[in-house]
Amino acid sequence: MAKVAVYNMEGAEVESMELNDSVFGVEINEHLVHMAVLQQLANNRQGTQKAKTRSEVRGGGRKPWRQKGTGHARQGSTRAPQWTGGGMVFAPTPRDYSFKINKKEKRIALKSVLTSKVSEEKFVVVDELKLDEIKTKKFVEVLNNLKTQKALVVLDEMNANVIASAKNIYTVKTAQVNELNVYDVLKYDTVIVTKAAVKNIEEVYA
């Protein structure tokens, strides 16, 4: 089992704890990590592009001139694609980009990125994260004490003061254990986790 130091909010080491190898010591599966990130980005796409085809453009109900005898090429509608103001050929329509991967694969991907953070020593455990008031300056001090700036902060429970204090720091994101995802763990340099949240992660994913 991997051992990590547990720090307090002042950045001092107060104890150490062992991590469960079934969550934080698995074999890293890069393919599933890649698929999990692709899925999350694809599922976030809106797919709301739209252009009108010739059947949807306003006007063009009558034939602009007779079929023969004018010297012009024959035309059936002023809203055909070759006309200015005409419809678009193969116009894009709203679509759903999302796709699914198995729950088991998602879990393996998440365990893989958590394992990589532990092996890179970018997994910081704190005994607790509590603020008496909403104060961004105080939260910045905590980050400085832990020697990190760009961090994903994982909480074991809803903590309004901590969440609100971190909200204005664009290099920080807070999440609860049930909101953990592969993309966020990879996006932020360091994962800061409360001791209680580590226990919750092990209970959920072991």
TrEMBL record:
Domain of life: Bacteria
Region (Disordered) location: 44-87
Swiss-Prot/TrEMBL keywords: Ribonucleoprotein, Ribosomal protein, RNA-binding, rRNA-binding
This protein's record includes keyword ATP-binding: no
One function term, GO molecular function aspect: rRNA binding
GO biological process: translation
Record-level GO cellular component terms: ribonucleoprotein complex; ribosome
One Pfam family it belongs to: Ribosomal_L4
HAMAP family given in the database record: Ribosomal_uL4_B (MF_01328_B)
NCBIfam families the UniProt entry points to: rplD_bact
Assembly and interaction partners: Part of the 50S ribosomal subunit.
Biological function: Forms part of the polypeptide exit tunnel.
Protein name, UniProt field: Large ribosomal subunit protein uL4
Organism: Lachnobacterium bovis DSM 14045
Upper classification of the organism: Bacteria, Bacillati, Bacillota, Clostridia, Lachnospirales
